[in-house]
User: What shape does this take?
Amino acid sequence: MKIGLLGLGTIGSGIYEHLLKREDIEVKRILELLRHPGLEHLETSDYSEILNDPEIDTVIELIGGMEPAHTFTVQALKAGKNVVSANKLMLSHHMEEILTLAREMGVHYRYDASVGGSIPFLYNLMRYRGADRLTGISGIVNGTTNLILDVMQTQGRGFDEVLKEAQAQGYAEANPAADIDGIDAQCKICIASAVAYQQYVRPEDVDTEGIRNIDSEDIIQFKRMNRVCRLIAASTWNDDGSVSAYVEPTLVASDSTEAAVHLNNNTISVVGEYFGVHTFQGQGAGKHPTAFAVELGLRDILDGVSPRLNPIPEGYARIDNGAARHAYYVRTTAQLPISAEALGNCGKGTAYVTEPISVREMHDLAKQLKQTDAGMFFAGIIE
Ligand code: HSE
Assistant: This one.
C-alpha cells in the first residue's frame, strides 16, 4: 500500500511514525506547506503530485477543516484512491456525497478515527447494523471539554488554564471554539447517528450547547447536588420514526459511568433491541490514540474488509427534539419564564432546577435568556 499523507500535524506526524514500523505500507508523499527536517524528499505543496501518482492507492486526509479537505477527498475518490480520514467536520456536512462517491468508485472511505479517537465504536456500529435495531447513542465524545470539566471538578483549576493544557497535549481543535461550543461533538453525533439509524442527520438540526459559560461557582453547586458535569452528545430513534439529537452540558450522578470518565477519555453507549446496552470507553483524542485508529482503517483495507461494511444511509432523518425531555439546571441573572425551583445565588446569577421540559424548549429558552444574560449556563439533569 502506497500512501499520500495530507497534513503532518499532531495526528499526521503520529501516523507517519507508526507507519515507519510497517513494511507493507509506505508513505510515498506528504502534502505539507511547512518543511520538516529529514522529510523534505517526501514533502510537496502540490496536491496533483499525489493525485496523479498511479502508485499511490490510498490518501490519508488529516488536514482537517472543511476546505480544501472536502475538495481533496472528492478528487482522491474520483481518482480511484481509498481515503482514510479523521475529519468529522467535513464528513458530517458532506456525508451523503462522500459515501455515495466512494461506493460508486468501489473504493474505501474509512472514517473510524472521526468519532471516539482510538475507540472501536463506529466500526462496531457498522457491524451491528442490520443485526439489531439500534435505538440510542449517548456519551462523552469530546476529549478537550471532558479534560476541562474533569480538572475543574477534581482539582478546582480554571477553565482557561486547562484549555491551554488540552491544546499543548494536542487534543483541542485548531480553533478550540469548536470543542468548547460543542460543534465537534455535534459533528460526531451526526456521523454516529447516520451509521446507527441509516438516516443522515444534518449538523444544523442538532440542538447544541457547549461549556463556554460554565463557572467555578456552578461546579461548587454541582458538588452540593452530588453531581458531575459532562458534555453529552445523544441521539435516539423515536417510535414514530423521528430522531432526537442534541449536545448539551449534562449533570450526571457522581457514581455514574460518565462521572468516572476522566481527562481526555471518551465513553459512548449504544442501545440495541436485542443486545441491550454496549458501552465503549477509551482515549478519544490525541496523537497516538487517533493515529492508531487511522492505522486500523489502513489494515482493514489491506486485509480485504469489504467497502460494503460502510453503510449508505437512506435519506435524511426527521429531527424532533420535542420528544426528548428532562429537568435542567439553569444559572442566570434573567427572569425564568418557566416553573423551576430556585437553589439560591450562584456567582453570576441565581441557580434553578426546572421541571422536565423538552430539549427543544430548553435550547430555545437559552437563546431567549442570552439576549439579556449572555453568560447564562444550563445543563440537562439525567438519572
Ligand atoms: N478536539 C477533539 C477532542 C479531537 O477534543 O475530542 C478528537 O476528535
Summary: The chain has two domains: 2-110, 122-288+317-381. The pocket of L-homoserine is lined by residues 117, 142-144, 171-173, 179, 184, 284-285 (CB under 6 Å). Residues 251 and 381 are 5 Å apart (CA to CA). Residues 122-288+317-381 form a domain with the Dihydrodipicolinate Reductase; domain 2 fold (CATH 3.30.360.10).
